[in-house]
Write a structure and sequence with these properties.
It is built from five helices and five strands. The chain has about 120 residues and is α/β, with parallel strands linked by helices. The protein is about 40% helix and about 20% strand. It is globular. The chain has a domain at about 30-45 and about 60-75 and about 90-95 and about 110-119.
Length: about 120
Amino acid sequence: MKTIFVVDDSDTNLAMAEEALEDYFNVMTMPSADKMFLLLEKMTPELILLDIEMPNMNGFEALEKLKNGKWAGIPVLFLTGTVNASIEEHSSKLGASGIVEKPFSQSALLDHIKRHVNI
């Protein structure tokens, strides 16, 4: 089973994403980008769902670090409660594969991921 990382500082969002995806993927949830980078040293996911607004290292900073390192090939979908032209432009410029708006439905989340990962 393919692995997906879900990185969000909200336990509710982590639980919702896990519930939506657990039948199709090995879902690894983590509350921060720092934890994600620790786990990336041990395993490589097929895709990362990454919250933009997090303490310490936000999603933009984490994506920049991903794309400038050995994980540049991993598709990253941003999770955010705010989608506007500025966020879309910045996400695209940094190399995000797309944006999933919160709150998300389980079927919409799965549809976004299916565009990037064959299941």
